[in-house]
Amino acid sequence: KKCLNMQSQHKRKLDKSVQDDLYFDSYSDVTIHEEMIADSVRTDTYRLGITRNGHAIQGKVVLDVGAGTGVLSIFCAQAGARKVYAVEASSIAEQAMEVVKLNHMEDQVTVIRGALEAVQLPEKVDVIVSEWMGYALLHESMLNSVLLARDRWLKPGGLLLPSKAELFVAPINDLTVEERLGFWGTVKERYGVDMSCMTGFARKCIMNNDIAVSLVTVEDVLSHPCRFAELDLLTVTEEQLRSVQGSFSCACFGSSTVNAFCVWFTVTFPGEEKPLVLSTSPFKPETHWKQAVLYLDEPVEVMQDTKVEGEITMFPSEESSRHICIHVEFSIGDLKRKNKTFSIPDGYADVQ
Fold first, then answer.
1. How far apart are CA 239 and CA 187, in angstroms?
2. CB atoms closer than 10 angstroms to residue 308
3. What are the Protein arginine N-methyltransferase domain coordinates in residue numbering (predicted)?
4. Calpha distance 210→293 (Å, rounded)
5. Can you name the residues that pair with 276 across neighbouring β-strands?
6. Which of 67, 208, 212, 284 could disulfide-pair with 279, CB 3.0 to 4.6 Å?
7. pLDDT of residue 31
8. What is the predicted pLDDT for the residue at 50?
9. Alpha-carbon distance 66 to 214, whole Å?
10. Residue 182 pLDDT > 90, yes or no?
11. Bigger pLDDT: 322 vs 159
12. Measured between alpha carbons, how far is 344 from 128 in angstroms, rounded to an integer?
């Protein structure tokens, strides 16, 4: 990782159309679609979520927002949808048309190339399905398009798949960071040169303001998860997404070192018997979303029942509205309350 203390001097705000072009272009390559479909937790849960809601899809009209290769649209057609409008802004829409044709679904599935905000549908829809979630749930900000589709095209009493999202946080001890910081103390023994003075510099570079997307193991998690926000997708507004916030309070399991917070999400598909949950928790099987890791400036030693509490606010970056920022105010034990703001800096334009 690089140090970002000069970041604000070298970045500039991207025009909205440039942001959108960068975003849609990222979906024009096969790699991201391979990663998503190969994520069996994601794809199987969507397939099951659609199948379990077959009673609401049978003979009805479905809109797939951000259809990609069209796999969710075909799931809906297989569940008996009369018509599926698969809206996709990137050039992968051409491949989606081929997939639809190969599966003999042309009569049921219509692929529409264009941004959701610009397309026109010939009719209102009964169901909206979308796999809109990004890292830390809201990075990429595709949820705004789903809400626009909901307000513009969904019939009263219509169904959203998924219908709810929840955000969770827990303190963690990232052992990899401890190993990397400890490395500089071992150089003298190995090579005869004392480089322990590098530890402070390494800490600033590694424990920076980036939202790190990485896998967190169950052993790293130091408390029970705390839910800090819930989004009802039938009622949440774009204005409310400008600031998604909540508080958390948890007690540590035992003696350890807190060097980061871990954030993850779940989404829920409604069901007649019981809801179906797609979870990106470190306690559940791995997904391509992994977890969002937020490193503290300094590690803090904790004991059993040490209280960790605070507030989290998630909001769009000023530089790019599709990028999420996370602000955390927190206290650990009796230590003074601190705060830190994190972001995913990809996609900024460098000032020449």
1. 52
2. 23
3. 164-333
4. 9
5. 269
6. 284
7. 84
8. 97
9. 25
10. yes
11. 159
12. 29
Residue 28's pLDDT is what?
A: 58
* 131 annotated active-site: yes
**Catalytic residue selected from 35, 140, 219, 298:** 140
DSSP-assigned beta bridge partners for residue 84: 62, 109
Q: Is it the case that residue 348 has pLDDT exceeding 80?
A: no
pLDDT single digits (tens) 125-136: 999 999 999 999
Please say whether the beta carbons of 141 and 324 come within 8 A: yes
Q: How many alpha carbons lie under 13 Å from residue 352 in its C-beta half-sphere?
A: 0
What tokens does 156 get?
């009263």
Rounded to an integer, the average pLDDT of 99-115 is: 96
User: For the chain, how many helices (H) and strands (E)?
Assistant: 12, 17
In whole angstroms, give the CA distance from residue 201 to residue 89: 43
pLDDT tens profile 289-322 = 999 999 999 999 999 999 999 999 999 988 888 8
Q: What does the pLDDT read at residue 250?
A: 97
Given the residues 131, 166, 238, 329, select the one marked as catalytic. 131
223 touches 250 (CB < 8 A): yes
Which residue matches tokens 């972001």? Answer: 343
On whether the CB atoms of residues 168 and 266 are closer than 8 A, the answer is: yes
> What domains are there in the chain, each with its CATH number?
7-163 (3.40.50.150), 166-350 (2.70.160.11)
- Intra-chain end-to-end CA distance of the chain, in Å: 22
Half-sphere CA count of 200, side-chain side, radius 13 A? 1
3-state secondary structure of 232: strand
Residues in CB range of 33: below 8 A, 6 or more apart:
27, 68, 69, 92
Residue 179 annotated as catalytic: no
Contact 114, 145 (CB under 8 A): no
